[in-house]
Amino acid sequence: MAELAIGSNHLKMYQWAIALFAVASVLFIYALQLSAIALGLSATPAERLDYSPEAASVPVVLRAVRLRQWEETARRVKYTWRAGICYDAGIVSFLGGLGFIIVPHTWRPWPMGNFIGLIVVGVAFVIEIQWASSRATHPEWLLPKVIDISLETLPDDVRPDSLPDDGRDILFQTSIADELDKLARLREREILTEEEFIGQKTRLLS
Asked: Is-contact 200 183, C-beta < 8 A?
C-alpha cells in the first residue's frame, strides 16, 4: 500500500485500491481485537469450578458462577459475531482493492495475465459476498456436507455396546459438574433436604 501511495508509476485505479486496502487493514485490526476479547470470555465450566472450588459445596457460590458463565457466554457471542462481521468486510475490501490493482493502464490490448487475474478476483469477490451475507451458509457447494449421525447409523464395532466397560464409562458418563449442578438446583427448590444434598454430593466427590 505504501508503494501505491508514494510511488511515481501509479496504476489506473490506484486511489480506489488505496482506500479499500486501508479499510481492510482497519477491519482486520478490529477483528483481531474483538476475537481476543471473546477468547478471554471462553472459560469452560470445568475451569470455572477450578477457579472457585467452593462452588462444589456451596449452592450460592455455584449459582453465582453459573450466572457469571451465562453473562460471559452472551458477551462472547456478541464479540464473536462482531469479529466475524469485521473479518468478512475486511476480506471483501481486500479483494476489491486487489481487483483495482489488477486493472491495467490500457484496455487495448488487454494483458492476458491481468485478464485472468481480474476474473479470479471477481469470482472470489462474489463468493465472499455470498459467504458474508449468509453468515457462512452459502454457497452450499463450497461447504462440507453435514451428515446426521445417530447410534443406529454407527458401525457395529464403534457402538457403545461394543466398547469395553471402562471405555463406555469414560465416554458416556455424565460429568460430575453436571450432577453437582442438578443437585444444587434440587436443593434450591427444596426438593432435597440439606442432609440429602450433602450425602449425594459426598458420594459424587468420593
From this structure: yes
Query: In the chain, how many domains are there?
Result: 2
Say yes or no: 75 and 167 in one domain: no
Question: Which of 26, 138, 18, 142 is CA-nearest to residue 87?
Answer: 26
- Which amino acid appears at position 154 of this protein? L
List phi, psi (to 5°) of 119.
-65, -45
> 177 near 49, Cβ under 8 Å?
yes
User: Does residue 109 have a cis peptide bond before it, meaning omega lies within 30 degrees of 0?
Assistant: yes
At 39-95, the pLDDT tens digits run 988 888 788 888 888 877 788 888 888 888 888 888 999 999 999 999 999 999 999
Give the 3-state secondary structure percentages of the chain, helix then strand then coil, rounded to 5: 75, 0, 25
Q: In the block, which residue shows the cell 460429568?
A: 175
Considering the domain architecture, whether residues 115 and 16 belong to the same structural domain is answered as yes
- Residue 1's nearest CA partner among 9, 12, 20 is 20
Cα–Cα distance measured from residue 132 to residue 139, given in angstroms and rounded to the nearest whole number: 10
Amino acid identity for residue 29 in this structure: I
